[in-house]
Amino acid sequence: MSDAKKVTVIGLGPMGQSTVKSLVEAGYEVTVWNRSPGKADAMVELGARKASTVADALNAGAVTLISLTHYSAMYDVLGQAVSELTGKTIVNLSSDSPEKARAGAAWVTDRGAAFLSAGYMSQGDDISHPLSYLIVSGPQGLVTEYDGLLNTLSPVHYVGPDYGFSQVYYQAGLTLFHPLLLSFQQALAMVQRAGGDPDRYTGYAVKFMDSMKDFIVQFAAAAKATGGWEDVAALKMMDAGAQHIIDASEEVGVDATLSHAAQSMWRRALDASDERGEVITTYRLMRGD
């Protein structure tokens, strides 16, 4: 098999395992290494080869994909075989901050390897889902060179040469996801505790999410043009609306911490607007204007 079809995957959590499965199914010769060997054994059953050491893993092919909890784990792992990095390409799929991604890129390239920073925006660990994609940053030539490999994993969205930018967009996606997940759970619990039908509400929630697509586009345009969509009347309306959500939740014993946090943002924007004599939108407040 040609070197182009030989790939190493280090780190076999849910995303690392999904990566291995996709590559094996696509006909790649995959070598795996994991600090907990049991996970590597499971990948061998799928057709991967288990490396005995990090050095063995790095030397199995020209490209190594790293899927770890954060970038500091990369130093611990690759630090076991620094002398083997020269001439290799490292694609780090781990989540971390943009600055830590840039520092990780410098650490790798200073030791003679090429580097790309990437992150899956996926439906859970289903990287083959039609809506999943891979955000990648680093040298464009390197992305072009490994276009076939990267697109085998998920459709590539290249966001520029800055090693940190994949994490800018990746963490922005998670910034949206975390409160969305929590707010849906609060809403579902409120409906259920109140004696409503969770299945019926789930249908309403899906319909609501469809409507949010247009709002996001409109909001982004307003944020770019004027720094946000609210005026003082809108801020007061959102403050009052947040209180209604808090009351509806707490009346049936549902935790409304998230809604209290949202209300505090509307109130801070109102206070800042009053203090400065101009409308300070929540977007401007978050941006630090």
TrEMBL record:
<dbReference type="GO" id="GO:0016491">
    <property type="term" value="F:oxidoreductase activity"/>
</dbReference>
<dbReference type="Pfam" id="PF21761">
    <property type="entry name" value="RedAm-like_C"/>
</dbReference>
<dbReference type="GO" id="GO:0140673">
    <property type="term" value="P:transcription elongation-coupled chromatin remodeling"/>
</dbReference>
<keyword id="KW-0560">Oxidoreductase</keyword>
<dbReference type="GO" id="GO:0000785">
    <property type="term" value="C:chromatin"/>
</dbReference>
<dbReference type="InterPro" id="IPR036291">
    <property type="entry name" value="NAD(P)-bd_dom_sf"/>
</dbReference>
<feature type="domain" description="NADPH-dependent reductive aminase-like C-terminal">
    <location>
        <begin position="162"/>
        <end position="287"/>
    </location>
</feature>
<feature type="domain" description="6-phosphogluconate dehydrogenase NADP-binding">
    <location>
        <begin position="6"/>
        <end position="154"/>
    </location>
</feature>
<dbReference type="GO" id="GO:0050661">
    <property type="term" value="F:NADP binding"/>
</dbReference>
<comment type="similarity">
    <text>Belongs to the HIBADH-related family.</text>
</comment>
<dbReference type="InterPro" id="IPR051265">
    <property type="entry name" value="HIBADH-related_NP60_sf"/>
</dbReference>
<protein>
    <submittedName>
        <fullName>Dehydrogenase</fullName>
    </submittedName>
</protein>
<dbReference type="GO" id="GO:0003677">
    <property type="term" value="F:DNA binding"/>
</dbReference>
<dbReference type="InterPro" id="IPR006115">
    <property type="entry name" value="6PGDH_NADP-bd"/>
</dbReference>
<dbReference type="InterPro" id="IPR015815">
    <property type="entry name" value="HIBADH-related"/>
</dbReference>
<dbReference type="InterPro" id="IPR048666">
    <property type="entry name" value="RedAm-like_C"/>
</dbReference>
<dbReference type="InterPro" id="IPR013328">
    <property type="entry name" value="6PGD_dom2"/>
</dbReference>
<dbReference type="GO" id="GO:0031491">
    <property type="term" value="F:nucleosome binding"/>
</dbReference>
<dbReference type="Pfam" id="PF03446">
    <property type="entry name" value="NAD_binding_2"/>
</dbReference>
